[in-house]
Amino acid sequence: MKRREFMVLGGTAAMLASSGTAWAAGKWPSKSAVVISAYPPGGTSDIITRLVADVLTAKFGQQFVVENHAGAAGALAGGKLARAVPDGYTIMVSGSAPIAANKVVQKNLAYDPQVDFTPISIVAESPALLTASASAPAKSLQELVAYAKANPGKVNIGNPGAGTKGHIAAAIIGQMAGVEINHVPYKGSPPLLADLLGGHIHFALDAPSNYLQHIREAKIRGLAVTSPKRTGELPEVPTVAEQGFKGYDQTLWFGAVGPKGMPADIVAAIRGAIKEWIDTPAAKEKLTSLGLTPVANTPDEMRVSIQREIESIRPLVEAGLVQPT
């Protein structure tokens, strides 16, 4: 972890530890626990995983250790969680792909997220961000659509993995615009960003945090955000809906889940710790700086979000706009 990120996490731990709160009801946790990260270090999902792990460590007085199990758009991490003992010592924090979308975009998924996971809480949400390299043949979403119409089959949009919100959001743009888009899945955000900066791919659709500074430094361009409203971190970048796609809304989220059968009191304790942190000014400032909106909803509310995500993607698969892998 970079020194700057370590200092941020350490500050969060100190803030929560100073509150004097501790888990006193029962024996959990009596040892260290694992927080599975579904993507490589450095991406938005992994940053949120580490923030949550730090919060839980400070709250409960035991180490919550992050383990990265990247691969197959989060399916490797999801499979590991599904096989874990539901005793509160293994959870996963991730974007929505392994928690929801993988159910309909992966052919031979080794788990069913609606059956094999226990929802805990959505931690944060944000728009996805469509970006372009400095050498891209389009400087706006309208220009991208026009280029795609004039050059069928030549528009490649990278995403951090099959079934991620970047993948789905691009597929819906293609559907609404009536253009062909080639989806290029990467193993997380860092390699996608590296190729975008190097001009090896012209367009990317991903969570915004890794891209903000590069847009401010004019190394890449922000073309559109996928939420109904513009983001405060990039107020100059219009929404997809503002650029001719009325009603378009593809907000992505990051949440915490445990294995099937996780005890309700432990679920409530973890969710409570996340909510306590989310309500602090420091948490709001940190998440906002990453282009994220704090959430901390209930397990039942998260369960509804998982169902909604799956049902929104299923028609795309059935129409052949998203090919199961």
Keywords:
single chain, six-stranded mixed β-sheet, D-Maltodextrin-Binding Protein, domain 2, 11 strands, 325 residues, disordered N terminus, five-stranded mixed β-sheet, alpha/beta
Describe the structure.
A 6-stranded mixed sheet has the order 2-1-3-10-4-11. Strands 7-6-8-5-9 form a 5-stranded mixed sheet. Residues 1-11 and 13-25 have low confidence and may be disordered. Helix content is 42%, strand content 19%. α1 (3-17) runs parallel beside α2 (44-60), α2 packs across α10 and α4 packs parallel to α12. It has 2 domains: 3-126 and 251-318, Bordetella uptake gene, domain 1 (D-Maltodextrin-Binding Protein, domain 2, 3-Layer(aba) Sandwich); 129-243, D-Maltodextrin-Binding Protein, domain 2. It has 325 residues and is α/β, with parallel strands linked by helices. The protein is built from 12 helices and 11 strands.
Q: How many runs of DSSP E, i.e. beta strands? A: 11
**Order of strands in the sheet with the most strands?**
2-1-3-10-4-11
Strand content: 15-25%
Return the CATH architecture of the largest domain.
Answer: 3-Layer(aba) Sandwich
* Residues in helices, as a percent range: 40-55%
Indicate the CATH topology of the largest domain. Answer: D-Maltodextrin-Binding Protein, domain 2
Task: Enumerate how many helices there are, as a single number.
Answer: 12
User: What's the alpha carbon Rg, rounded to whole Å?
Assistant: 19 Å
Q: Helix- and strand-based class?
A: alpha/beta
SSE series = HEHEHEHHEEHEHEHEHEEHHEH
The CATH superfamily of the largest domain turns out to be Bordetella uptake gene, domain 1
- List segments where confidence is low: pLDDT < 50 over at least 5 consecutive residues: 1-11, 13-25
In this structure, how is the largest beta sheet organized? 6 strands, mixed
Count of distinct structural domains? 2
**Highest CATH level, the class of the largest domain:** Alpha Beta
Mean pLDDT: 90
